[in-house]
Amino acid sequence: MKVGGLLCAVVLAAALTACGGGGGFNPDPFFRVGPISDSVSHQILKLDHIASTLAGKRTIVKCWSNRGWARLRAWEGSRHDTPAVDAAGITYPRSRHIELSPVVCQILEQVLERSARQPLFTAWAVHVLAHESAHASGIDAENRAECRAIETDARAAELFGFSMASARRLQHIYRGTLYPHDLPRYRTPPCAAGQPGVVVPDTLGTAANLRPLSHVVTKAARTLLHWRSIGGVLSVGPLSPCSPIPSRSEELARFGEGFSGPDGADVLLSDVTLKTKPDFSAALARISAHPRCSLRLFQTNLRETHSPGRVLLHALPAAVTRLSPQVTGFRISIIHGPIQVNNDLITVVDPARRRFGTVYFQGHAGHVPVSAEVSAVKTMLQSS
User: Fold this and answer.
1) Strands of the chain, DSSP E
2) CATH 3.40.1000 region(s) of the chain?
3) 259-318 pLDDT, tens per residue?
4) How many helices (DSSP H) and strands (DSSP E) are in the chain?
5) Which CATH architecture has domain 202-383?
6) 3-state secondary structure of 138
7) Which of 115, 155, 197, 263 has the greatest CB tally within 10 Å of its CB?
């Protein structure tokens, strides 16, 4: 995942004027004031107040519904506005309107309600609002807006009700875990604010519920010799629409850690416990549809971002799947001319504990040895 691609897009005033008419779709509509909702888009007064304080100007924040945001993404793709397609937020400086994606708003709702302890996602969502507020203040350049957001992350967190110490920690979490993986236009030249940075995994849940998940991921990680931990950066963003787990609200606990390997390869190791047996059973039933759904999703992303190439669906290497009946998964290959990047998504199912373990390798064909996948999956099976 490209974290920078999930940060923001600023739409300049001239572009807003140009897109205001025609096409039957308004990318900057007025929404009624209301609560954060997956099904209805609303203006959110509490977020208005925070963004206005950070921007120093009256700013409106809108949380889009899932369906509305999907339409906005498709509209931006039809206009060849690639940065906006994968953005977590879009700002229109002329109107000082901030459009936030559903996943950012879902997390900010949890932040406001103190209903979930997930430091990395909290740091990310608070930062997205701070970044968009920097654009609303009149800063167009992405690198300057990003640095301004890092400088104000702690203030933003305090406006959400965090203590000064907790707010500073969230600032350092963003600075250490997410900022190094921003696209170059967000971090060139580098921003010194928010140091020292802290690298943390992706976590959700109590210490007691996290302990067994951390144990599994840590033991699997030891099989990856000479791979470097990059924390939870690979987890940040929305769940795939194809994910067997449809909503993070069904998760009792989550522990995920990414690692960077040779030749630009990455691996994400994660373990998730679901809250109830019905949640687990429903997720298990969706696994069979995951491969072809993901294939269509990759194809759509290539089309919306106007990227050349093609996408193919393959079975996992037999050495992986024959380890256990608990192991399932698939490979998706993205091919651009002579370059092929393989995405191997391997799931380890543990019905007795309502758990899904995931081993997700991404790298150029031939650069991720099957033996590395086998070792990680085998250790995850044994640790569970």
Assistant:
1) 9-10, 42-43, 60-63, 89-92, 97-100, 202-204, 228-231, 251-260, 266-274, 310-314, 327-336, 339-350, 355-364
2) 202-383
3) 999 888 999 999 999 999 999 999 999 999 999 999 999 999 999 888 889 999 999 999
4) 14, 13
5) 3-Layer(aba) Sandwich (3.40)
6) coil
7) 197
